[in-house]
Amino acid sequence: MQAITSLDGRYYERIKVLAPYFSEQALMKYRVMMECRYLISLSLSTKTGLRKFTESEIKKIESLYEKFDDISYKKIKDFEAITNHDVKAVEYFIKEQLKKTSLKDSIEWVHFALTSEDTNNISYALILSDSLGEVMVPEIKKIISELNTLAKKYKDLPMLARTHGQSASPTTFGKEMKVFVQRLDRALDHLYGQKILAKLNGASGNYNAHKATYPKVDWMKFSENFIKQFNTLYKKPRILKLEPNLVTTQIESHDSYIEVFDRLKRINNMLIDLNQDMWRYISDNWITQIPKKGEVGSSTMPHKVNPIDFENSEGNLGIANSLFEFFARKLPISRLQRDLSDSTVERAFGTAFGHSYLAYISLEKGLSKISINENKIKEDLLAHAEVIAEAIQTVLRRESYPIPYEALKELTRGKQVTMEDFSHFIDDLKVSPKIKLELKKFTPLTYTGLASKIASK
């Protein structure tokens, strides 16, 4: 009731699946995981003064993030209330949990030689990778699957095409759905190939404290191995893998984040395009919406069944993209070796993902409630006989008939023509009876080219 944003209020139940990735508690859990993995890696390297941990000790450390809960989160926030520093609060939390165990002799190795940005950038890289792999991409795939079903089911349904808003050579409803399938599939392929850069190199990116304490350790190699371990930490492979960035300032430059956001923005733009097309099809009564008992379309017009799911999706995609565009403008810029302005921006990642996800499920809901009005689609196509003018003039070109384009332009441009008009036109042509018969076979319903075959691919 008291939520400030619609995502945390009106829409929370619909988007709460993102809370394990973008909530404040989730960020703390990822930070704890990063710090715990670092402590374990230092122990396993056996090249520093840190002793090698036993299997049970490693399991104890892992339990801090694997069993992270509300109580864990509250303890961190209690530390933060004193330190006014969220990452330092994470460090103190881990130390407190370990100081009463056999690991009490090793607690000063928590956050050893690190800066907060080492912890944060890896945490955010994991958050982006996990949320995309577990939530966002599966939802996009559901949309693609639904569109592919429509493409195959209606591959042969002839439909009037419109270019510049005017009648154009016919297509099929299925083929137009296939266009979006192909675009979205390609966009996902590009997203799969994206890597998220991460760094572990200290306060200025030079391993200063690392080298000062253990100059013989190959810290760059350690950093590479540490970051790459997250790609195989779980049985399920990552869609977006982490990649070490060895050349940074205090912060990882965020360029790969922006590459991810740009790919999501392109997907979102495709879906805005789809939403607007569906809206127009509904407006033309080519698509009808199945009303749900008890729902209201208008507070004053009882008959209304509005395309609210597609409109909701379009609006949320616009909000998400405006944030992704802002991220792209802001995040690559940091004063000298680091300023803190990126930190507050990163906390808004979940807002952009939340509006995107809300748009995806709204679009899915809209698609689940539609029925294709085949009769209306065919009726409107038949009302535009002029669309076969292209077919006739092209065949006449093949036959070397003089100025066929101009002849068909004179017959059709800006005029309401019928199939009877075409029949008379063909009768007057100085071509063979065989060609006349060929030309008279063209109808708006059959002049769809390879649309059915394309939709079947």
Overall strand count: 6
Largest sheet composition: 2 strands, antiparallel
Distance between the termini: 49 Å
Kindly report the name of the CATH homologous superfamily of the largest domain: Fumarase/aspartase (Central domain)
Helix content range = 55-70%
Low-confidence stretches: none
Q: Any guess at the CATH architecture of the largest domain?
A: Up-down Bundle
Indicate the CATH class of the largest domain. Answer: Mainly Alpha
What's the helix count? 20
- Give the percentage of residues in beta strands: 5-15%
Explain this structure.
By secondary structure, the chain is mainly alpha-helical. The protein has three domains: 12-112, Fumarase/aspartase (N-terminal domain) (Fumarase C, Chain B, domain 1), CATH 1.10.275; 117-374, Fumarase/aspartase (Central domain) (Fumarase C, Chain A, domain 2, Up-down Bundle); 384-456, Fumarase/aspartase (C-terminal domain) (Ribonucleotide Reductase Protein R1, domain 1, Orthogonal Bundle), CATH 1.10.40. It contains 20 helices and six strands. Helix 3 runs antiparallel to helix 4 (55-66), helix 3 (24-45) packs across helix 7 and helix 5 crosses helix 6. It is elongated, with a radius of gyration of 30 Å.
List the helices and strands and how they pair.
Blueprint: H1 12-15, H2 19-22, H3 24-45, H4 55-66, H5 70-83, H6 86-98, H7 116-153, E1 158-163, E2 166-172, H8 173-192, E3 196-198, H9 208-213, H10 219-228, E4 242-244, H11 255-283, E5 287-289, H12 308-330, H13 341-346, H14 349-368, E6 370-372, H15 374-382, H16 389-398, H17 404-412, H18 419-427, H19 433-440, H20 451-456
Parallel strand pairs: 3-4
Antiparallel strand pairs: 1-2, 5-6
